[in-house]
Fold this protein.
Amino acid sequence: MSYTLHVYFTEEKNYNKQTSFDSVKKLFSNSNRVVFTNAKNIFTKEDYLKLTIDNRYNISVFFDDNATVSDDLEYILGKRLKCNARMRFLFAPDPENDFDDVAVILLDYLESLDKVILYSPNLKKIIFNSFITK
């Protein structure tokens, strides 16, 4: 089964698609296992980043910066926060767990960011929250 992870950016920084995709590329810049491809969503025609690992495993990275991002986060939290963007990671099925190392690298990186909320639609729960409300 595939797995999806949403990363909500709750800082007031101006996140954009290119810098977000570049940050993911930088994580694996010294790896000869990962190939990056810019692709287009066949339904929305939006650009996304595709990571291909060892020529047989894919992770798709999408970037959203529209009004639905805040609405989705409000639905998850039950309250409104300033949220201007999110990245969505779609991990291909990995029944033998051959690519867990790549997922761990991504998760460690995302957890190191300030004021982010990581949400698992598969589990329907927040798995990490570095945004502290006062």
